[in-house]
C-alpha cells in the first residue's frame, strides 16, 4: 500500500491519518517515515498484551496455548512500546486501557474516546413491560476464542442451573462464526438458539429479558454489554465482561463463579422489577456516554497537521 504513489500523496495531504485496530496500528512506524509531517492517530480497541497475558494464566486454556500466549504477550509489549513512541495520539476506549498503555512509556498523547454505539433501532427508553417468554441473550462474534469460551462455559456450567429454576426460559446465542464444538453443544439443548450470522440483532434485543456477558478471556471494553444497556436490558457479567465500563452501578450483577452468575440471572428473570432501577440508570448513562454526539465532541479534540484543534 505504501509503495503506491497515489496513496502516499493522499497521506501527505491529509490533516491526520487514523489507524483502526492493533494490526493496522502496527503500520505507524512505516507511516512516520513516509509522511513525517502528518499526525498519526492509532485507535486501540483493546490493549492486546493484556489479552495474551490473561490467556496465558487461565486454566480453561490448555498448557501449550498458554505458553504460546505468554510468548505473544512479550512480543505485544515490545510492539506497544514502539507504537506509543511514534504515534502522535493513541485512542483507547476506557480509562483502564489508558493506564495500561501509559505504562509503555513513549510520547504519544493517550486519550479516552467513547465509542458511538447508538442507532435508530434502539428504543427511546427502557421497555415498560416484560417479555412473554423469558429470554437470556448472549451476543458475540463466536469465531473469536474468548466468545466461544464464554458460550461453552455458559452452556456447560450456568445454563443448566437457570433452566432448572425458570420454567420455559430460552437462551439465545446471537452472532456470526460459531465453530463445530459450539454448534454441537448448543444443539444438545432444545431451549437454546444459536443464530449464526444475522443482518440485524434488533429483534433479539427486543425479545430478551436479560443480557449476559460471561467472558473469562480477552481485553478491552466489551461493547456488547454497553449495547445491551442502550437497549434497556439488565446485564449480568463477569469481571472481564464488565471491564472498562465505569458507569455508576450499571450492572445487575457481576460474578465470576458459575453458581453466582446463574443465581444472578435467575433473580433478574424471576423478579425483573428489582433490576429495573439499575437497568434504567444504565440506560441513561450509556446513552449519555456512548452517543454519536459524545464521540464527535471527542473527535474535535484530536490534533491536525497545524497542531490546532480541527472543528468541522
UniProtKB/TrEMBL annotation:
Keywords noted in UniProt: Transferase
Record's Gene3D superfamilies? Glycogen Phosphorylase B
One GO MF term, please? glycosyltransferase activity
Pfam families documented for this protein = Glyco_trans_1_4
List the protein's name: Glycosyltransferase family 4 protein
Organism equals Geodermatophilus normandii
Amino acid at each position: 500500500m505504501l509503495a503506491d504513489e497515489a496513496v502516499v500523496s493522499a497521506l501527505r495531504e491529509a490533516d491526520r491519518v487514523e489507524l483502526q485496530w492493533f494490526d493496522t496500528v502496527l503500520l505507524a512506524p512505516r507511516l512516520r517515515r513516509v509522511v513525517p509531517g502528518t499526525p498519526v492517530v492509532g485507535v486501540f480497541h483493546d490493549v492486546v498484551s493484556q489479552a495474551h497475558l490473561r490467556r496465558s494464566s487461565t486454566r480453561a486454556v490448555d498448557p501449550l496455548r498458554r505458553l504460546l500466549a505468554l510468548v505473544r504477550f512479550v512480543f505485544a509489549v515490545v510492539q506497544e512500546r514502539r507504537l506509543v513512541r511514534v504515534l502522535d495520539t493513541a485512542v483507547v476506549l476506557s480509562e483502564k486501557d489508558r493506564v495500561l498503555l501509559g505504562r509503555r512509556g513513549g510520547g504519544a498523547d493517550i486519550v479516552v474516546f467513547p465509542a458511538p454505539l447508538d442507532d435508530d433501532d434502539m428504543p427511546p427508553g427502557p421497555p415498560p413491560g416484560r417479555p412473554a417468554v423469558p429470554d437470556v441473550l448472549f451476543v458475540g462474534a463466536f469465531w473469536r476464542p474468548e466468545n466461544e469460551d464464554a458460550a461453552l462455559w455458559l452452556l456447560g456450567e450456568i445454563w443448566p442451573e437457570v433452566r432448572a429454576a425458570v420454567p420455559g426460559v430460552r437462551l439465545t446465542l446471537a452472532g456470526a462464526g460459531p465453530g463445530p464444538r459450539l454448534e454441537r453443544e448448543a444443539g444438545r439443548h432444545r431451549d437454546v438458539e444459536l443464530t449464526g450470522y444475522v443482518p440485524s440483532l434488533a429483534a433479539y434485543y427486543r425479545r430478551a429479558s436479560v443480557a449476559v456477558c460471561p467472558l473469562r478471556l480477552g481485553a478491552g471494553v466489551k461493547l456488547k454489554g454497553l449495547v445491551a444497556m442502550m437497549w434497556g436490558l439488565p446485564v449480568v457479567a463477569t469481571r472481564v465482561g464488565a471491564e472498562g465500563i465505569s458507569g455508576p452501578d450499571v450492572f445487575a450483577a457481576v460474578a465470576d463463579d458459575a453458581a453466582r452468575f446463574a443465581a444472578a440471572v435467575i433473580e433478574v428473570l424471576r423478579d425483573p422489577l428489582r433490576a429495573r432501577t439499575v437497568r434504567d440508570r444504565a440506560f441513561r448513562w450509556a446513552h449519555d456516554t456512548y452517543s454519536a454526539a459524545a464521540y464527535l465532541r471527542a473527535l474535535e479534540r484530536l490534533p491536525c497537521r497545524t497542531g490546532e484543534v480541527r472543528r468541522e
